Amino acid sequence: MLIFLLCIALLILAYKFYSPFVERQAGINPNAKTPQQRFEDGVDYVEVHPVKAYLIQFLNVAGVGPIFGPILGALYGPIALVWIVLGNIIGGAVHDYFSGVLSIKEDGKSLPEIAGHYFNVYFKGVMLIFTAMLLFFVGVVFIMSPAGLLSNLDYFEGTILANNVFWVLVILGYYFLATLLPIDKIITKLYPLFGLLMIVMTTSIAVALLISAPQLPEMADIFAYFDHSHYNNDLLEPNPDGLPVWPLLFVTITCGAISGFHSTQAPIMARCLTNEKYVRPVYYGAMMSEGIVACVWATAGIAAFPGGYAELKSILDAGGPGLVVNQVATSYLGVAGGIMAIIAVAIFPITSGDTAFRSLRLTIIDAFKIPQSIRNRLLVALPILVIAYFMTKIDFSLIWRYFAFSNMLLSTSVLWLATKYLFDRGTFHWIVSLPAIVGTCVTVSYIMTAGIGFGLPQSLSQPVGIATGIVCLIGLIIAHNKRKPVTE
């Protein structure tokens, strides 16, 4: 519990002291006209109050990721908390902040357009493919997970509400409206309320954890995860199933630590902010908040089951993270609190899924310069949602693996894009370039060893990933030494 409280404190302190330093590198200009002020169109470029913008961004990026991911990451034990906090402070919050900066500086454009500006048309094409792929997978995941959770609730047993297809169609219908309608018709009205619900639910679980004083592992157990003699296995095998921390933990827990999906959401609020000074509280603040949510659920996953790893694993095998959420919420908050938490966890992924499809529409429209008429929005959105329906018939775990890899790959690409931005400005680029190198190592290691990749053994994939990172670091040092000072 001491580690849990320390993690929360570190996230808050990072916002207080580190984020202003990050902001100074970005070239924020409070006197500049924002995209909203220059391109007001009543559809996507709409004025939104910064507090509302924060709650919307928080809900856009939070979804089910910082709940399900940390629960799965709890299988690795307390080291999951360490990764969430370090990943968030060093990588995730900076990644989200510069996603917002780049978008608001580039007329609220989507990532592929920004990539084309700072690099070339080829990099733009690669970013377009992976951005569209990730947004689509996120949308599909956030149809399947809430539909599965809602249809499996005991309260609906024996009714049509227990039918998974029913919920899939209901959610798709809502996504259709949220994708087409102006942002101030649904999103700016409902999302602040749902964002507050997320905060209330997370706070309730956190307070319950403190009051209940659960049987958490001792602090020394963190170091046991790296103690060779403790497991009689490889150093990187932290549990009885031998799941390697590198790179699987970094891919399992993305939301809460670092997530490429967040960068795809940046243009939505970048088109609505009325001043560049709001980028830090909206983007950095939302990611810090998501880190707190992730810490709460990782701790709950570790603490809620006296049987430890074996009990958590058996529950995940039986019903996935949704069943864990159900049991944790009910045991800690009682029946009423459990219902509130379960409903909230069903709502949160839906509120990320709709903005995922909305961002996909914006990305396609930006890439192909399609006019923003209702007919064109309909022609883009309808085929996407029809294909998404048929994708819900595919195994969820397969979709999740592609989502996880795309997520890490895109976050790394955005960090390299931010590196180029700071390089051009002549400011301190290491705040993004070093996390980009780590992300490159993890991404290469994962695709080398994963079943959806090359399927190589860990003994080969890990050195290849690390070697790739070393090459990137050497190249970065050479480029840094050759860089000419830039004055503004």
TrEMBL record:
<keyword id="KW-1133">Transmembrane helix</keyword>
<feature type="transmembrane region" description="Helical">
    <location>
        <begin position="282"/>
        <end position="309"/>
    </location>
</feature>
<feature type="transmembrane region" description="Helical">
    <location>
        <begin position="329"/>
        <end position="353"/>
    </location>
</feature>
<comment type="similarity">
    <text>Belongs to the peptide transporter carbon starvation (CstA) (TC 2.A.114) family.</text>
</comment>
<feature type="transmembrane region" description="Helical">
    <location>
        <begin position="398"/>
        <end position="418"/>
    </location>
</feature>
<feature type="transmembrane region" description="Helical">
    <location>
        <begin position="374"/>
        <end position="392"/>
    </location>
</feature>
<keyword id="KW-1003">Cell membrane</keyword>
<dbReference type="InterPro" id="IPR003706">
    <property type="entry name" value="CstA_N"/>
</dbReference>
<dbReference type="Pfam" id="PF02554">
    <property type="entry name" value="CstA"/>
</dbReference>
<feature type="transmembrane region" description="Helical">
    <location>
        <begin position="460"/>
        <end position="479"/>
    </location>
</feature>
<feature type="transmembrane region" description="Helical">
    <location>
        <begin position="75"/>
        <end position="98"/>
    </location>
</feature>
<dbReference type="InterPro" id="IPR051605">
    <property type="entry name" value="CstA"/>
</dbReference>
<protein>
    <submittedName>
        <fullName>Carbon starvation protein CstA</fullName>
    </submittedName>
</protein>
<feature type="transmembrane region" description="Helical">
    <location>
        <begin position="430"/>
        <end position="454"/>
    </location>
</feature>
<feature type="domain" description="CstA N-terminal">
    <location>
        <begin position="2"/>
        <end position="143"/>
    </location>
</feature>
<feature type="transmembrane region" description="Helical">
    <location>
        <begin position="243"/>
        <end position="261"/>
    </location>
</feature>
<feature type="domain" description="CstA N-terminal">
    <location>
        <begin position="159"/>
        <end position="314"/>
    </location>
</feature>
<feature type="transmembrane region" description="Helical">
    <location>
        <begin position="119"/>
        <end position="144"/>
    </location>
</feature>
<keyword id="KW-0472">Membrane</keyword>
<feature type="transmembrane region" description="Helical">
    <location>
        <begin position="164"/>
        <end position="183"/>
    </location>
</feature>
<keyword id="KW-0812">Transmembrane</keyword>
<feature type="transmembrane region" description="Helical">
    <location>
        <begin position="190"/>
        <end position="211"/>
    </location>
</feature>
